[in-house]
Design brief:
Distance between the termini: 13 Å
Keywords: Glycosyltransferase, Transferase
CATH class of the largest domain: Alpha Beta
Protein name: Glycosyltransferase
Strand order of the largest sheet: 3-2-1-4-5-8-9
CATH superfamily of the largest domain: Glycogen Phosphorylase B
Shape: globular
Number of strands: 15
Enzyme class: transferase
Pfam families: UDPGT
Strand content: 5-15%
CATH architecture of the largest domain: 3-Layer(aba) Sandwich
CATH topology of the largest domain: Rossmann fold
Number of domains: 2
Largest sheet: 7 strands, parallel
EC number: 2.4.1.-
Length: 482
């Protein structure tokens, strides 16, 4: 039986790699006719990426049809405001060589195309050079994809200056949303002065050149946006194949340093009584904001588990570190006063924590992976977005879907550290925690999330919406090379 090979190209960063690798594994489990190579871009000192790839590979039961290849680090990669895309684009020659070698060396597999991360669309040129189909794996949701296409249209077809939406109170009619979208939740990169808006939108514009888009979502969660995209003539075929997340919760529980202590504490708490605060692998807060969060938690009286990490330097490329002593940043005697009702920890095994029955709420930055994980485990969110498309995700959860409580929707952190950060006050945070964990409105949100939890699992079962979308994608890939 001839196999069809796909080459997946993940952009740098753990969140993109996790969903890309897990998608590859899922497709391989679905159809024995496929084999997949995942190309990994690893920045220096990215230990979590290395740890994940090792564990992913060792736990995989489809190793014979799966290859993971670390692309070479480009020592002379320029450091600039466009560092991420420069870093990605500098991999063009190694990727071309891998594709060329595959085509030169006959094997039992026929190359079916390139599956590109949403930030790797420049490599469409390599697919075209070798007359191969190209697909995109979009690691965020359908609403975000629809918004990006809408902004591409505004800029390139209607010649709008998107800077006009900075700090604007206008609300936009966007096809993939059923409600008007405030300009204040648009990703900051699109409305700020400077070249980055055009750089980002050019990458998203090129998605329209591909043969299809796999989106990490499922029809029941974003049916309005998915149907809107499917009805747009210029949009390639959309395959909602999610929710796709890390499948390593058991592995995290057994290997993460300190998890035994976390689990022991959670085991002692009543069911659905603990609110979990965690803000992703790259997010942290300055001392003033930490103190406001601490005050809110203490005043709320709620049990809490707080993943608190230390800022390290300035800029988006820096990864938070661990505090040696939480007393250096928390209010005086906070740990002593909250002993028994709360626990402050460093880096958290998020999937393992969210799966614990004691967790009843989640203060989250609303990254898409975290959003899907909250749905999968039926844990409602209080929204605290920081950057990228997180404000849009928060708006979708609160206003479009009614599945979260708002701390803030439009809060934006200056990830470059060039401006003083806005501070969200303790009263605002405390009120949202109470609404989520205690008030009647929180019960309505909780019920919606639990209902979507069941739908998320059904979507991936045989005959489910995402199962069927995966099947259609596989058949389309094979048909395009036959």
């Amino acid at each position: 039986m001839q196999k069809t090979e796909l080459i997946f190209i993940a952009s740098p960063g753990l969140s993109h790699l996790v969903s890309t690798a897990e998608t590859a594994k899922l497709l391989l489990q679905r159809d024995e006719r496929l084999s997949i190579t995942v190309l990994i871009m690893k920045r220096p000192n990215e230990n979590l990426t290395e740890y994940y790839t090792q564990k992913f590979w060792s736990n995989s039961n489809i190793n014979s049809r799966l290859k993971l290849i670390n692309l070479p680090y480009q020592e002379n990669s320029p450091v600039s405001t466009n560092y991420l895309f420069d870093f990605i684009d500098n991999q063009k020659d190694p990727i071309r060589e891998i594709v060329s070698n595959f085509l030169k060396n006959p094997s039992e597999s026929k190359l079916g195309g390139l599956v590109l991360d949403m930030f790797c669309t420049k490599f469409i040129e390599i697919a075209n050079e070798f007359n191969l189909p190209s697909y995109v794996f979009f690691t965020s949701g359908a609403c975000a994809l629809g918004l990006f296409f809408h902004l591409v249209e505004l800029k390139y077809e209607q010649n709008q200056d998107l800077h006009m939406y900075k700090n604007s109170d206008v609300e936009l009619s966007i096809p993939c949303f059923s409600v008007p979208v405030p300009a204040k939740v648009l990703p900051a990169v699109f409305v700020e002065e400077g070249p980055m808006s055009s750089i980002f939108l050019n990458y998203f514009k090129r998605i329209l050149e591909t043969n299809g888009i796999m989106v990490n979502t499922f029809h029941e969660l974003e049916h309005f946006a998915i149907e809107s995209l499917s009805n747009q003539n210029k949009c390639p075929k959309v395959y909602p194949v999610g929710p796709i997340m890390s499948s390593s919760s058991d592995d995290e529980q057994s290997t993460h340093q300190g998890y035994d202590e976390i689990k022991k504490w959670l085991d002692e708490q009543p069911e659905s009584s603990v609110i979990f605060l965690c803000f992703g692998s790259r997010e942290s807060f300055e001392e003033a904001q930490v103190k406001e969060i601490a005050s809110a938690l203490e005043k709320s009286g709620q049990r809490f588990l707080w993943s608190l990490r230390k800022p390290w330097g300035k800029g988006m490329m820096q990864i938070p570190t661990e505090y040696e002593d939480f007393h250096e940043v928390l209010p005086e005697e906070f740990l002593e006063r909250t002993e028994g009702t709360g626990k402050v920890i460093g880096w958290a095994p998020q999937v393992a924590v969210l799966s614990h029955p004691a967790i009843g709420g989640f203060v989250s930055h609303c990254g898409w992976n975290s959003t899907l994980e909250s749905v999968w485990f039926g844990v409602p969110i209080a929204t605290f977005p920081l950057y990228a498309e997180q404000q849009l995700n928060a708006f979708e959860l609160v206003k479009e879907l009614g599945m979260a409580e708002e701390i803030r929707i439009d809060f934006k952190k200056d990830m470059r550290g060039e401006k003083p950060s806005e501070i969200v006050g303790s009263e605002e945070i405390e009120a949202a925690i109470r609404r989520l964990m205690v008030d009647e409105g929180g019960h309505r949100v909780r019920n919606k999330v639990k209902e979507m939890k069941e739908k998320s699992r059904m979507a991936l079962m045989e005959g489910g919406s995402s199962y069927n979308a995966q099947s259609v994608f596989i058949e389309d890939v094979i048909m395009n090379v036959s």
